[in-house]
């Protein structure tokens, strides 16, 4: 309330380059807030401001404005931490992107497509060859045959697939279940869809689905449940039993399943299972994925949503008015990527396994309690052996005094207290970077 009050006061007395009396006229969006505290602040602005103050304020930029749907969201934690990493020269094991490049054969395919003039708008729901390549990979991975023309929609990364799915299939007031901790875009896109968010918390040590709580939260008002497997930030992979439980509740309550599977190829201990492959689930599932993680090309933002025609319709309607289509040459290059032989994925997993060992062994030596992470390129640890009150305080110390960036996980919970003991590290970095981070922690992090 305090900062909101201050911001509003600034808003009221900062209308630029107007005579004093004009400058005090609140902006239309402020008028709509007919709250007592707004009126008090306005009155105090009138009584205390003088022309000198107005002259100073007039040079300041106008106050930040954001719709109510998004006002509770801050700058994403990844942006904040990456800025701090640069400021303190810290080794960044925070934001989940590789510090090495994607494969040459995919980059060459993009360059070729650009040279061949594949540079104008693509078909809205995808370059036909890419829709077919996505369908072929899905068939190989799940055994399911889908129609590339009717059931695959190419999007600008999985992030847009998530947004298009929410905006295209959720009505205001619909209940949607998500598991905490969750990838941050879920809450924001659900808020943009005016959905009612219901959360179920996955807790350490194994982040298992709490069956009783899940059963309690499901009801006939549930429109959908959103699952992320392998799971960011914990690295958890939903087991067959957990997926079967969720599937039975979806069927019982006639709910949809939205599944984010961007880390499907980073499964270290067990085969990834797609929710869509469970009996009775394809008809009610939107499977979302992207190229970025698997091909170390996170900046390309090529993703897709696979769903039966009746659900693809909603996704495509939203996609049509969000971005309409996505980068044409990158779509062509993605066709080459998805045709990679199995050896590409085997090599990828081998490389990541080596990186993971360096990070996990190192973190244990430093003194963290490290939780098992069967999938993704993240590891979650308990930082409490080092005596900090919460994850934010610990991460600030880690950046400023140790020179390493991690992500505080409390930002991935509706109730930040639930994540206050946990921080996330990524091993999507070259081995020297990982070793350097471990050395810094060994030298400077004291219990
Ligand atoms: C769980 C999850 N889903 C989606 C995304 C975003 O994927 P994309 O870069 O393809 O938009 C990320 C990126 O970190 C992620 O961790």
UniProtKB/TrEMBL annotation:
It holds the Pfam family Aminotran_1_2. Its cofactor is pyridoxal 5'-phosphate. The keyword Flavoprotein does not apply. CDD domains: AAT_like (cd00609). Residues 91-440 form the Aminotransferase class I/classII large domain. InterPro entries: Aminotransferase_I/II_large, Kynurenine-oxoglutarate_AT, PyrdxlP-dep_Trfase, PyrdxlP-dep_Trfase_major, PyrdxlP-dep_Trfase_small. One of its GO terms (cellular component) is cytoplasm. It comes from the Eukaryota. One of its GO terms (molecular function) is pyridoxal phosphate binding. PANTHER family: FI04487P. This is Aminotransferase class I/classII large domain-containing protein. It comes from Picea sitchensis.
